[in-house]
Request: fold
Amino acid sequence: MRSVELSPEAIRRQADHASDQVVREASPWIEGLGRFGHIAIGLVYGTIGVLAALAAAGQGGTTTDTHGAMEWLVQAPYGRAILGAVAVGLGGYAVWRFVQAIRDTESKGTDLSGIANRLVYAFIGASYATLALSALRLAQGEGGGHNQDTSAQDWTAWLLSQPFGQVLVAAFGVAVLAVAAVQFWMAYSEKCCESLRASELSETQERLVRLAGRVGFTARGVSFGIIGLLLIVAAVHARADEARGLGGALAALAHQPFGPWLLGAVAVGLVCYGLFMLVQARYRRLVVR
Reply:
């Protein structure tokens, strides 16, 4: 029997078809993992916000980051089981973000802007994959790695030791400020809510969800803004110990004039962000094909 030779174009089409078939078959799982991931993120950020609100009110609590929130969760009744579920959810969220980046499910395209957006999705996926691994280790009774303050200071110290180290640290600070600006823009423009299946919500529900999203993204913008400013301060003073993560940023906010009120406002915003993510788990359009 004479063999049929396929052109490179035909081979590529067959490969694309096979890849699409795999994605179609896996998409219910990917969508489910993505929604479960939103629940996990909502739980973690809600915990951060509640603990910060209690600290602001002088009722205990603490200013902490995602790692600290997971350490608190693991100490709760059935904490290891809860944190194990959180680890699965965070890993699922990472998978969904990787699919966004690789398959271009949001139709960002292959121009410079589209590639940049897809790289952001991949970076977010890698960040949450790392967080999922930390959650899994904590659930297993192992160390879950450093908190964000320690990690930020370690990276800042390493960068400062490089040629033009202060410039590098300052550049990272500016980049974090840019992330903060994006959070503010997402809140102001309501872009944070554009993926909601709003038709499934009543008018009152939609207003409340949109308010929670805008308040939540504003709080994230404030948090990232403080982190970015502290990185720039660390660069100017050439002192790595002045860099901070989310927990340190919230603590710095608490030490400002009217600090408890400022911290309380941001804490409420972080709780709103957590609630918004829980709503997103049910009502967000998740495209995985």
Q: What stands out?
A: The two ends are 38 Å apart (CA to CA). Residues 148-283 form one domain. DSSP finds nine helices and no strands in the chain. Residues 10-26 have pLDDT under 50 and may be disordered.
